[in-house]
Amino acid sequence: MMTAMAAMLVFTAACGNNGGNEASTGNNGNGSATNAPATEKPAEQADKKLSGEIKVDGSSTVFPLTEAAAEEFRAVQPDVRVPVGVSGTGGGFKQFCAGEIAIADASRPIKDEEAAKCKEAGIAFTELSVAFDGLSVVVSKENDFIDHLTVEELNKIFKTGSTVTKWSDVREGWPAEDIVMFSPGADSGTYDYFNEAILDKEGIRNENISFSEDDNTLVVGISGSKYGIGYFGYAYYEENQDKLKVVPIDGGNGAVEPTYETIKDGSYAPLSRPLFIYVSNKEMERPEVSEFVNFYINNIGSMAGEVGYVALPDEQYAEQAAKLK
């Protein structure tokens, strides 16, 4: 038995020396390549388990996208926490430019005055487009008289200074019932976009209207009022189609209903819009932030449709990824 064990030790040592020679020379001794696994990575390139917290806040419209990305990222890096808030686009930029969060969700581009505050605070950032959205005008399922609305009629309903109070004031033949309005709050990028695209920046009226930064609150209010009307991102309409009716909008070329196709090709005008995330360049120096943002951009296209948004063309995602380099 001892003789056999000694023989085995000699054999094992010989194999170990031969393996070491092949590893160090990169070949099998006669100049041909060894059969090392193709997936083997140098130590510095090996996947690392990361940890930490990445704070995100801002647009309630972009929230479903970022939440989806955070959930998928958790499967890859379970020790990285990504809490996502919904204080509205404006509220998100306030925190972002104060250095309180790493990423701001935004349903509109950053304003000049917001960018100036970031600059004053020494916060450089990168703007990344993540998907398209179609801001959707909705009414209750009980509403049986609205078939479409023009941009002019939306102005009669929502614009500050308007004297229109009843549906019969909007279009002849409609009921003489009070219009009950619902709108995202002034900190919302959706509010800003609607004000700019529909109301020529003149502002939304304050009488007989309910404001909320929470789109789910708006859903409850609109669906519960036969004569109510409001607007928010397409994802919230799609999620609540059983309670709400979407209103086709005539921007001058006929009434168009928001769908994946009309949002993507721009025919749902003027309410198709791009969505963004803004990332602090300093925060990107943290490996967990860099990893998450790259994951977001490289994967959000496949997630967008699942949460009610329209993915950008592949070449646009490639352009966003190039910004991160």
UniProtKB/TrEMBL annotation:
Region (Disordered): 22-47
InterPro entries: PBP_domain, Phos-bd, Phosphate_ABC_transporter
Coiled coil: none
Organism superkingdom: Bacteria
Localization (cell): Cell membrane
Signal peptide: 1-16
Annotated PBP domain residues: 45-297
Biased composition (Low complexity): 22-35
Residue ranges crossing the lipid bilayer per the database entry: none
Keyword hit for Cell cycle: no
Record's keyword terms, sorted: Cell membrane, Lipoprotein, Membrane, Palmitate, Phosphate transport, Signal, Transport
Main location: membrane
Topology of the protein relative to the lipid bilayer: Lipid-anchor
Entry function: Involved in the system for phosphate transport across the cytoplasmic membrane. Part of the ABC transporter complex PstSACB involved in phosphate import.
Quaternary assembly: The complex is composed of two ATP-binding proteins (PstB), two transmembrane proteins (PstC and PstA) and a solute-binding protein (PstS).
Family assignment from sequence similarity: Belongs to the PstS family.
Name of this protein: Phosphate-binding protein
